[in-house]
Amino acid sequence: MKMKKYLITLLLASTALFVHATEHDINFGVGGSNTYSPSSLTVNVGDTILWLGDFSSHPLTSLTIPAGAAAFSQSTGSGLYYVVTQPGTYNYKCTVHSGMTGSFTANAVSTGISSVANYNEFKIFPTTVQNTINIDLGNATKANIVITNLLGDKVFNGDIYDNAAIDVSSFNSGLYFVNIYDADRLKATKRFFKQ
């Protein structure tokens, strides 16, 4: 019963954060141009960036990103989703056309969920993933990990020690939360996007 209350609390807190999450479209190569439109914008942590264009003509790569954020690149296809997980400025470019650059600045958004004592160095990477999510407990040596989807459905539950790699290849595409529990109490939460 306690676990259910914590999951409901987590779902309500995360829903409050993502009710205001926005998708920002960045078009490129429109009409043969070598520009990103818009070339700069301001977003919030939790928002999604969607680049739309021909990546084979305009390969995309990140130049600078905030600490803890996942790098991004794309050289095929026509769309790339990127969930913004860290505040700061993100710079990117087309690797073929000099001067074809863009940036966005992400503002921090309070989730109402805080890390406490032994779990303040808890990290997950990458934050946009296809197969495996890596978990680093930082200064903690053991934790119970519960991964939930955006609806609060539990998709993984298990104990890990120090560092662990969890196979998420069978998960559906979408946003997931990695929750650390200690003695049935939620201690910290991070999120990742499964492609």
How does the major sheet shape up? 5 strands, mixed
Which CATH architecture of the largest domain would you pick?
Answer: Sandwich
- Classification by helices and strands: mainly beta
Number of domains: 2
Protein described:
The protein is mainly beta and 195 residues long. It folds into two domains: 2-15 and 112-194, Sandwich (Immunoglobulin-like); 21-107, Sandwich (Immunoglobulin-like). Helices cover 9% and strands 48% of the residues. It contains one helix and 17 strands. The protein has one helix at residues 2-19, and strands spanning 23-28, 36-37, 40-44, 48-52, 60-64, 73-74, 79-83, 88-94, 101-107, 123-125, 128-129, 132-136, 142-149, 154-161, 163-167, 174-182, 185-194. The strands form four sheets. A five-stranded mixed beta sheet has the order 3-9-8-5-6, with no helix packed on it. Strands 11-17-16-13-14 form a five-stranded mixed beta sheet. A hairpin with a 6-residue loop joins β8 (88-94) and β9 (101-107). Mean pLDDT is 82; it is low at 5-19 and 111-117.
What's the short story on this structure?
With 195 residues, this protein is mainly β. The chain is built from 1 helix and 17 strands.
Topology:
Layout: H1 2-19, E1 23-28, E2 36-37, E3 40-44, E4 48-52, E5 60-64, E6 73-74, E7 79-83, E8 88-94, E9 101-107, E10 123-125, E11 128-129, E12 132-136, E13 142-149, E14 154-161, E15 163-167, E16 174-182, E17 185-194
